[in-house]
């Protein structure tokens, strides 16, 4: 079965790839392990799952008709609504016929003699195409840490990133949740309401702030709909790919609004506290110097700790919830609904693994150094092998038998997060070295798919059969990616985030996304194309 393009993954990137590539006249087939579209939003069905980017921003801009007809029920959408949106797109644009579901890719091999990619699957099929596009997502390979005795547990084991499609009934159950990143923090308040007893096993406390929980009011929705073109233009100019458009700015032009950056160090202690009282924890995220200056960062961290002591009634639990040794901005910012208040419930117990580490999982629960906890359900909210996991697990072999795992043994090396030297005609969507997870993903996806589509058409119209990033361009880009990350809170030595691969034992510690901002990055991609792809070998 030969196609022009095989796309791996039917999340938002795979969906837009079909739409775009088909429009360009290419024959495209998508292979998807799940039984439906949606990617992240298909797999992450845990209670409380929702997006931390406003729905109007976290939506596609390629179809004005889609923008007008789709209705977001909330300002920040929950997982079921985002999944509905993905399904609607697949139906509305007739994308389903191009997707083969329940098909997991097991190997991706470049055949140099034919200049074809052969893609093998667990359905024992092999698909071949000139181009292969890995639309496999940045947070799609769940990380389930190895813990002694975990296979002995006779209760139910769940992972937030692989939550079952059928409803899980936790009523009357004793539930233990391991992990307090974005997924854990979203799930914990919901699990606390459903379960009889909830034990939160926390290794690293989190800096989390309350999320916006407004319903989408009809008049606000109308203003958004009237201003989608402005919103899309503003997104293109913003480092994180978000317009920050407010309905009250309805008459705004497409010029990004400029305001003086607020610095926490410029305020007196009383002024800082007054603002904290007025605006809550979210205020501490609004000072520019908190992200660039260690002293400013410490001021904000200390205020944050004081506020946790205010919010959580039991002093020991409050102390346990205070992050130490790393500051705001090291990890991905987390948003919550009633997280700290959940620890004031009688049925919720915090187990601080820094003081009381897990020794083993047993048949009946978890034994820590100080206690045995009987459990019916263990929930792993332990994150993902981020950014590279889906690529290294796909068993990709390029030119001359080069394995991607071999090439990336010391860390991911790619050009613009789009192409990899040694792997001609293979493209990665939102790959390492691109803004990806530091950007509004839908904006990043549209930009990548457009670039890849234009590139394939350029090759076809110029009778060029292959494109491959040059190694020197790749090295130069990686050097730049590292350089711009220096001096940010992301790369402070005490910070152990998944951005750095630090959550996966043995994974090289490299800051993977591009922190230089979406507009600057896009310009570099556009320049690469406009120069006739001089950073690439064409053959
Ligand atoms: P995560 O941020 O990597 O958090 C995983 C949690 O599990 C951390 O608390 C981690 O502790 C803990 N953990 C890992 N291994 C452990 C072990 N062996 N023992 C004890 N604890 C362990 O993963 P996530 O919460 O799934 O979030 C990942 C990313 O997905 C987010 O940063 C975000 O980009 C995205 N996401 C977004 C949303 C949203 O839009 N609101 C929601 C969910 C996820 P350590 O910190 O000590 O490693």
Question: What does this entry show, briefly?
Answer:
By secondary structure, the chain is α/β, with parallel strands linked by helices.
Describe the structure.
It is a single chain. The protein is globular. The protein folds into two domains: 2-45 and 78-141 and 385-538, FAD/NAD(P)-binding domain (3-Layer(bba) Sandwich); 156-211 and 263-380, FAD/NAD(P)-binding domain. The strands form five sheets. Strands 1, 2, 3, 4, 5, 6, 17 and 18 form an eight-stranded mixed sheet that branches. The protein has a five-stranded parallel sheet with strand order 7-16-8-9-12, with helices on one face. It has a three-stranded antiparallel sheet with strand order 13-14-15, with no helix packed on it. It has 539 residues and is of the alpha/beta class. It starts with a strand and ends with a strand. The protein has helices spanning 12-23, 40-43, 64-69, 79-92, 182-194, 218-226, 228-237, 269-279, 294-311, 315-320, 339-342, 389-392, 404-407, 441-461, 471-485, 518-530; strands at 2-8, 28-31, 99-100, 105-111, 116-121, 126-134, 156-159, 174-178, 197-202, 208-210, 334-336, 348-352, 358-361, 365-368, 372-374, 377-380, 396-397, 426-428, 467-469, 536-538. The protein is built from 16 helices and 20 strands. Strand 4 and strand 5 form a beta hairpin. The longest helix has 21 residues, at 441-461. It is 30% helix and 16% strand.
The CATH architecture classification of the largest domain is 3-Layer(bba) Sandwich
Largest sheet: 8 strands, mixed
Helical element count?
Answer: 16
Share in helix: 25-40%
Cofactors, ions and other ligands in the entry: NADP nicotinamide-adenine-dinucleotide phosphate
CATH class categorisation of the largest domain: Alpha Beta
Low-pLDDT runs of 5+ residues are none
CATH topology heading of the largest domain: FAD/NAD(P)-binding domain
CATH-defined superfamily of the largest domain:
FAD/NAD(P)-binding domain
**Count of discrete domains:** 2
Strand-residue proportion: 15-25%
